[in-house]
Predict the 3D structure of the following.
Amino acid sequence: MSPTTVGDPLLNIAIFAAFVAITLVIVLRASRNNKTAADYYAAGRSFTGPQNGTAIAGDYLSAASFLGIAGAIAINGYDGFLYSIGFLVAWLVALLLVAELLRNTGKFTMADVLSFRLKERPVRMAAAISTLAVCFFYLLAQMAGAGGLVALLLGVTDKVGQGIVIAIVGAIMIVYVLVGGMKGTTWVQIVKAALLIIGAGIMTIWVLALFGFNLSELLGAAQANAPEGKDVLAPGAQYGLSDITRVDFLSLALALVLGTAGLPHVLMRFYTVPTAKEARKSVVWAIWAIGIFYLFTLVLGYGAGALVGPDAILAAPGGVNSAAPLLAFELGGTVLLGIISAVAFATILAVVAGLTITAATSFAHDIYANVIKKGQVAPNGEVKTARITVVVIGILAILGGILAQGQNVAFLVALAFAIAASANLPTIIYSLFWKKFSTRGALWSMYGGLGIAVFLIVFSPVVSGAPINEATGLSTSMIQGVDFHWFPLNNPGIISIPAGFLLGWLGTITSSRREDPAVAAEMEVRSLTGYGAEGATKH
Amino acid sequence: MEPRTSAYLETEASPQFKELKRRHRSFVLPVAALFLVWYFVYVLLADFAHDFMATPVFGNVNVGLLFGLGQFVTTFAITTWYVWYANRRLDPIADEIRGELEAKEVAS
């Protein structure tokens, strides 16, 4: 079996095309009521909690978390599982501290909440910049990841062919977001999340059935297939190599658990429901969907380790990422592989669409309408700007995706989480829970958190100076052949997150400007009672 | 029509609102601290106590796997607990205050 000919690329493409056709019809139907900014950015606030919760799961379960985590468990066992736990527990921060208060005080973006009682223009600008930074890194990672997926699933291995596929995926995404706005994007997420969870669920039951529904036996089979001396059932195979990798994992764990509730595309989803109570329901629904999905990946990962084997997975064109598709082929042949491949593609499409509409909203609503035009825009002007921004971001994402092909992109997602946790979360928490929090505190925390995270990444081994891998002759760093790194960790979270919190506190206690107590009272009353929050649009 | 800003200051100072704020914070802050501590205890054990986590419990299932699945169980449990608490202890009082503010709005 030559690794490039697993499955039938034509079948994969056909199933994916069917997905695109069906979702396109849904998007077109959904777009009929896209009139106002609330329609375009927040889907008229008309989704129910369960619908929005499913869409949140769709946004969150990116290709990295589906293919990446299943692959990591298949190769490194327990450490891949450890990774998924951080992604899940993080949702409790969103549920308890952020979702409802945010829904009650904002309209479209994170900046609405942060600038509620602080000096509007500088705070809005800072929040928009950090939103765009997170979206940019996350988007680039998804688009670059698409190249690898194309190689694996469609058998397209040359760079030009992959570039064409990335451009097609990007173009479809632009159409979705341009036409469908938030409503169309949300429906794409819902369809994709349902397919992904059902697909993974069927495979999970299938794998368990092969082992007589005995988890212990599955674990034993995975361990028996692992390389000599590697314990895949206990932690340490990946992160336990040295003290540096251990601290690095701690840093990553911190960024994962605190970053989720600061991801702008997740925060924006809370505005698509009519009330805070529905926002709460969405998070609850998302927690169950995401949690159950990660339990599935545990079985799928060990199942791939046991049934396909680590050697065959690493030898496939997609490397670690090919564990889930290869397992699908092993179980259900070309048809199941085709379905899983199409779902993986749909995943990239949906996540990219969600990020694009978030970035476009932040640019049009925060930077264009409120900072540049100072709120003086024609009724249609803001949405028009958002649509133009969608096209620009889409083209940038396609170009970035083509240029970033073959690069080490895993760190981009980790960086997005680290920025979200260091620049966004401290200001969100402070402004919702600390009445004395000041404009200076917000600016120091956002710019400081963002700056420190990016600065440390530039001088870390992900950019230069990682040891050369003997098998490939290449370093895992982004830039080959030079070494200017002095920061030993791959993830800056352990420094930049406490720094973000500290700067917010320091900026506040040194600030002489007193914020208006009446506006602070208004924000507090509204955040807890939901008074004055915008409800669903009526058509 | 938005109510005058003094309405917000009045509401904020009212015993009813103070009670809502107390109930909200006295739940979310300690529970958030609790699950974060439990998560980091787990991460530190997985990171630095490999042998302990590799201790077999039954069959091929070890302490580490049970602790990891325990994180799922506590996450689901806290979610359910919070929803129960919010529905019974937060929503009624928040609805009442919102109703009063809306009534004032109509009156003005």
